[in-house]
Write a structure and sequence with these properties.
Keywords: Membrane, Transmembrane, Transmembrane helix. The protein has 204 residues and is an all-alpha fold. The chain contains 7 helices and no strands. The protein has one domain. Helix 3 packs antiparallel against helix 7.
């Protein structure tokens, strides 16, 4: 039997928003774990991850309440917000997958020059100093610098993983973008269905 009834649409929409809720809590938990164990000291990076997690949690909450109560206004705003998120996320995911090595290097260098705390984390964790070259007067927290051994630049080391990370992020983004367009379609269909338990003469 094809899943096209009111109860099936409601259950699918609730399940989708529960998935979004779990993902949002996972993002917030990873950010808290990273800063708690000293893996990430950049408040900007942690703040962005937590903000994305909270935003996704609020969207999921609106969708969940709207689905449970069959609330037309909440479902409408949920559908519009989810559509906008889909457009942005799909564009960013495609951009991540389309970047070549030269563009990846330029993007990494821009990020390197604009995030001092993240730069310190990278140098400490990867045991490297500088992006393409290192000035002895610059600050570097890598163990090779403190021990007096020669330090290699960070660009080649980061470059080994940049393509894999961007492909992974782009793939995950594409997967969730398709779940978002599925959510838009489910919400649109669910809004136009009548609750069989409601008064037939009531306006929905």
């Amino acid at each position: 039997m094809v899943c096209g009834g009111f109860a099936c649409s409601k259950n699918c929409l609730c399940a989708l928003n529960l998935l979004y809720t779990l993902v949002s809590l996972l993002l917030i938990g990873i950010a808290a774990w990273g800063i708690g164990f000293g893996l990430i000291s950049s408040l900007r990076v942690v703040g962005v991850v937590i903000a994305v997690g909270i935003f996704l949690f609020l969207i999921a909450l609106v969708g969940l309440i709207g689905a449970v109560k069959h609330h037309q206004v909440l479902l409408f705003f949920y559908m519009i917000i989810l559509l906008l998120v889909f457009i942005v996320q799909f564009s960013v995911s495609c951009a991540c997958l389309a970047l070549n090595e030269e563009q990846q290097g330029q993007l990494l260098e821009v990020g390197w020059n604009n995030t001092a705390s993240a730069r310190d984390d990278i140098q400490r964790n990867l045991n490297c100093c500088g992006f393409r070259s290192f000035n002895a007067n610059d600050t570097c927290l890598a163990s090779c610098k403190t021990s007096g051994h020669p330090c290699s630049p960070c660009a080649p080391i980061i470059g080994k993983y940049a393509g894999e990370v961007l492909s992974f992020v782009g793939g995950i983004g594409l997967f969730f973008s398709f779940t978002e367009i599925l959510g838009v379609w489910l919400t649109y269909r669910y809004r136009n269905q009548k609750d069989p338990r409601a008064n037939p003469s009531a306006f929905l």
